[in-house]
Amino acid sequence: MFHMRRVGELMILQTDLFPVSLKHAFTTKRLNNVPPGSKKCSDFRIDSINETSNWWTKLRDSLFTKNHTLVIHNQVHGGNVRVLDSSKGLDSTEIAGFKYHIAGDGDAIIKPFMRQPVFIGITTADCLPCIVFEPESHTVAVVHAGWRGIASDIHGNTIRAFKNGLGIEPKNLLWAIGPSIDAKNYEVGTDVIAGLEASGYAETDWVDNPGVAPCWTRSRRRDHFMLNLAECVKTRLISMGVPEAQIDICKLSTFDNPNLFN
What pTM value is reported for the model? Predict the structure, then answer.
């Protein structure tokens, strides 16, 4: 279950699926920015580089310490997963006392236990954010996905990276799925559904399983559908061996809650 909490100057969402010791947060769109100096900052709606640094700094100082470096991707709505090398240090860039590292293009970062103080992050608007945790090894991951990322199987790729790269089984993973646009507000065309079907999603996944919620339903408009991003992810996770009890979905809609997410 998700709870809204005040930490420092920020209001954040946290899940009680994770142990108290895991420092994590789903924030508002006020933090929907790349770190200052990113070559792709023009792709994001930021007010100014200084404000971006200010808000990331508040997040870092509320949950971590000034020594921590933020590691983030240039997000490309794809399926690439990066596993950080715990044996190597990370170079960082610093602006106004805030340190960050751009880990190339991608949409998921896995961080094994590292002695270097780093925290990992993603930025979303109406896309779907996930935090993944494996308690025994203290490995954590963040995953960003809209429909293109889901069609690129970013979540399946993340599970495979845990298993093949780190020896961590899907049954040991805890998945927190954060706020995103909800199904009643997300209408898509046949091209989106075709992309999802090409990556293995099918109406039979839920039609033949009454306990499974639909990933999409037909819209009132011809050849349009209402897409449920969170249920797409949940369906894929369960199919790959993640227990349903270890998946927590935030019910808050980014579309219906502009006071929180604008």
Answer: 0.90
